[in-house]
Specification:
The protein is an alpha/beta fold. About 30% of the residues lie in helices and about 20% in strands. Strands 11, 12, 13, 15, 16, 19 and 20 form a seven-stranded mixed beta sheet that branches. Strands 1, 2, 3, 4, 5 and 6 form a six-stranded parallel beta sheet that branches. Strand 3, helix 3 and strand 4 form a beta-alpha-beta unit. Helix 10 packs antiparallel against helix 11, helix 19 runs parallel beside helix 21 and helix 21 crosses helix 22. It is globular, with a radius of gyration of 28 Å. The protein starts with a helix and ends with a strand.
């Protein structure tokens, strides 16, 4: 019917790990409640949408991955709209809004979204709503929530305008004058908006232990955005007094939040039906991962070091197709911890059914549009396998998941607290007690003892268990048939909701796995005596641009504190072999800026790095030890540069001390600069230092210095391999 088509809009998403997809599907799920009809597709599903003929409003939700790269599902779309043969009015008929997801801890924040937005504008497309740039570094919801609140009215207005323009094209200019908000507004950063909006609707008062019904609707059908407020209840007076005497925690709030009306999100519609079938044999891990033995494991740091760094060597000789170059990375597929899987099985009452097979089907009565079976769940896998290898049970629960858990809580106080944590008013508590501490489902269930979700809810809301990437720390020329990598064992501290600290999922698992064969640096005996080599599942990642240049005369500047030095060990091993094989070739300078806490406890690859320096493979090794303030750092250098006036603490300080050499190499000798390591602090500080070097050495202002660095990135001469 005509009225149905005029209320239709299209949602397109580009997602790497499911974040953008989840948001897009959430928008589609809420559309009906706003009198709209949504169609949702991945940008990679080209056969399902045709933007060249699209007459309805389009909402894009896209993330950014790597060094500002588009997600894999978005690559072809970005390439297609970048074609230079497209005319400037190619998308003049298109009305769109765009939500870009990114993380300011990484370079090129929201670069994919910005690229698509800019190109669509160049091709004549029209904004009907301001672009949002959501920052996962501080919390996506700071931008996401207000953006979603306003998008519905904008879609309705855009639909009306498109219909008006189609029916009365002669009144187009008058329509624009009457609706100035529909004329392409400039892109704005919505994280400047305040979330403390006044409540204009009267709250619905309900007892704390009630089902929170609205106009006769059960709690599962409360409309989105309804304000809920608990009335005083004699049974909860004592709990209120206890809260007044304590600090807020994961399970306990204080006024004003505990007495506030709440705007809770809409309940995500359930869409999966789970049937448990008789027991079966265990499944094998996904075929794309290769099983390889760990032949050597060395603890690189001393036992009293703050961080525990391990160097592992893998035997890949049985897999001739598994090749790599220095700078490459690979994935390790690790299982969820047995103890955490067992705890969830016990909580769900499935401890005796762990060997039963899981049969999934889409519910016939679901209200979720486009519902489909999750592709990462193998057909009829066992419950044990599902929770061990398929679901990221360590992931931080999203607010939509918390909203669904509300319905599974039997205790009224715990139900109210879950409502607070998923509400707009409880955003600070959600961040402070869940997001910032990376609290996971198992830890939530431990605290919210009355909450017992069904298995289907976990499958619907927990993302796919992701493999963990690691940088190669070797060269196949030096170690044929072997692959080495180094990592720190991640430690998550205790907090409210986590009485005891825990290790990172993959790094902790690897550490436990290699304990029987682990040796301390400088010794030859393992801690566990003779043992069979443990095996892990790995898969090489596609080679990127983080590799040494093919021209050996190009100077290399490498910045890698801590385990960030890993890829540069491969660079230098490769360079050393190449120098031996080509004695008449002139090689460019090699600079390495390395730093750690203590020289005696955390100096990774010390003997090997000093060996590279002695052989001439490494021409400059600049060191800093942030906790050895009183120690003078020797200026290893051939030839010696300007002596540092004081002991530098961090790698960026050493860069600044050698700014003239750095700028000379980058600007006069076309050097390549590589940065590897922590994204949140180090990479930002290094980038700021490089900006300062450009400004000082070239007498540039801030904008021009930024352009110089951007040009280096475009030329692939300023490359980063960083992580949060």
């Amino acid at each position: 019917m005509p009225c149905e088509t005029t209320r239709r809009f299209l949602i397109l998403y580009g997602s790497q790990k499911g974040q953008a997809q989840s948001i897009a599907e959430g928008i589609a799920d809420e559309a009906a409640g706003h009198g709209l009809e949504a169609e949702v597709s991945c940008l990679s599903q080209h056969e399902e949408y045709k933007l060249e003929r699209e007459s309805a409003p389009v909402v894009f939700v896209v993330s950014t991955t790597g060094d500002g790269e588009p997600p894999d599902t978005t690559l072809k779309f970005v390439k297609s709209i970048k074609r230079k043969t497209l005319p400037s009015d190619h998308y003049k008929h298109l009305h769109y809004a765009l939500l870009a997801l990114g993380d300011t801890n990484y370079a090129n924040f929201c670069n994919c979204g910005k690229t698509i937005d800019k190109r669509l504008q160049e091709l004549g497309a029209n904004h009907f709503y301001a672009t949002g740039h959501a920052d996962d570094g501080v919390g996506l919801e700071l931008v996401l929530d207000p953006w979603l609140e306003g998008v519905w009215d904008a879609i309705q207005a855009a639909i009306s305008k498109i219909a008006s323009d189609r029916d009365t094209p002669l009144k187009e200019n008058l329509s624009d004058m009457e609706n100035p908000e529909l004329t392409s507004p400039p892109s704005v950063e919505l994280n400047c908006l305040s979330l403390a909006d006044d409540q204009t609707s009267d709250p619905i008062r309900a007892p704390l232990d009630s089902k929170l019904t609205v106009a006769g609707l059960p709690s599962t059908e409360i409309p989105d955005g309804v304000a809920i407020q608990s009335a005083p209840d004699p049974q909860t007076d004592r709990a209120g007094e206890e809260r007044a005497l304590s600090e807020p925690s994961l399970t306990c709030s204080l006024p004003p939040l505990s007495q506030s009306s709440l705007n809770v999100p809409a309940l995500p519609p359930p869409y999966l039906e789970v049937t448990l079938l008789p027991e079966d044999t265990e499944e094998k891990v996904q075929e794309k991962f290769l099983e390889v033995p760990v032949t050597n494991a060395v603890q690189m740091t001393r036992g009293d070091s703050v961080k525990k760094a391990l160097l592992l060597e893998l035997d890949i000789s049985a897999h001739p197709t598994m090749t790599y170059m220095p700078g490459d990375s690979f994935d390790v597929l690790c299982p969820n911890r047995v103890s955490e899987v067992d705890a969830i099985l016990h909580r769900l009452g499935l401890q005796d059914k762990r060997r039963h097979r899981v049969q999934l089907a889409v519910r016939k009565d679901t209200k979720k549009r486009g519902a489909q079976l999750p592709p990462h769940i193998p057909d009829k896998c066992t419950v044990q396998y599902l929770l061990t290898w398929c679901l990221e049970i360590r992931s931080v629960p999203k607010k939509a998941f918390l909203r669904a858990l509300v319905e599974c809580a039997g205790d009224s106080v715990q139900k109210r607290r879950l409502q607070e944590l998923c509400s707009k008013q409880g955003s600070a508590d959600y961040n402070g007690f869940i997001r910032d501490w990376s609290l996971c489902l198992g830890e939530l269930l431990t605290e919210f003892t009355s909450c017992t979700p069904p298995l289907s809810l976990l499958i619907e809301h927990l993302p796919k268990l992701q493999s963990r990437p690691y940088s190669v720390a070797s060269s196949s020329l030096r170690h044929p048939g072997r692959l080495r990598f180094v990592f720190n064992v991640v430690e998550h501290p205790a907090c409210s909701g986590r009485p005891e600290g825990r290790q990172g999922l993959c790094s902790g698992w690897l550490s436990d796995l290699v304990t029987p064969i682990l040796v301390l640096s400088g010794t030859s005996e393992s801690s566990g005596g003779q043992a069979l080599p443990p095996k892990i599942h790995v898969n090489m990642r596609p080679s990127g641009s983080f590799q040494p240049p093919s021209d050996p005369t190009v100077p290399l500047i490498m910045v890698g504190p801590g385990t960030g030095v890993a890829p540069f060990i491969g660079f230098l091993q490769q360079r050393e072999i190449e120098r031996q094989d080509n004695p008449d070739t002139v090689f460019g300078e090699t600079w390495l800026f390395f730093g750690c806490r203590h020289k005696e406890g955390d100096y990774l690859f010390r003997e090997e790095l000093e060996g590279f320096l002695s052989s001439g493979t490494l021409t400059h090794l600049k060191l800093c030890f942030s906790r050895d303030a009183a120690e003078v750092v020797p200026a290893f250098s051939l030839p010696p540069p300007m002596p540092p006036p004081a002991c530098p603490r961090y790698v960026q300080h050493n860069l600044l001390l050698h700014s003239q050499h750095i700028s000379r190499l980058l600007l006069q000798h076309n050097a390549c600069l590589y940065v590897c390591g922590d994204a949140k602090n180090m990479a930002k500080d290094v980038n700021d230092t490089l900006m300062g070097i450009m400004r000082a050495e070239l007498q540039l202002d801030q904008l021009d210095a930024m352009k110089r660095l951007a040009a280096l990135r475009e030329e692939k001469r300023y490359l980063q391999d960083i992580w949060g």
